[in-house]
Specification:
By secondary structure, the chain is mainly β. It is built from no helices and eleven strands.
Length: 114
């Protein structure tokens, strides 16, 4: 059984920080492409940060230098450390994993106030 569950979202002021977690079951995060996406109202879902199957990382230009994706293989958990948050970072953040198909968590709301 594959399950992804995000946590750590909330309301923060601009310039603040949050750390999102994605707890997984049924997969090994070290062996799969994993990523964080976000979707704001009226907008398309976009890739924020991700791991390839080889372990390299990629980031959206808008978050480079502010966000860091990491993983704890023993806990099968993916993290997204978000610093220097801006109002435009407000969105629902989703964890995903690429296996035989694409799996998504239910999302966690991040709201950044000005």
């Amino acid at each position: 059984q594959v399950q992804l569950l995000e946590s750590g979202g909330g309301l923060v002021q601009a310039g603040g920080s949050l750390r999102l977690s994605c707890a997984t079951s049924g997969i090994a995060v070290s062996l799969n492409a994993m990523g964080w996406y976000r979707q704001a109202p009226g907008k398309q879902r976009e890739l924020v940060a991700g791991f390839t199957r080889r372990g390299s990382t990629s980031y959206a230009d808008s978050v480079k230098g502010r966000f860091t994706i990491s993983r704890d293989n023993a806990k099968n958990t993916i993290y997204l450390q978000m610093n220097a948050l801006r109002p435009e970072d407000t969105a629902v953040y989703y964890c995903n994993a690429e296996l035989s198909t694409t799996f998504w968590g239910p999302g966690t709301q991040v709201t950044v106030s000005s």
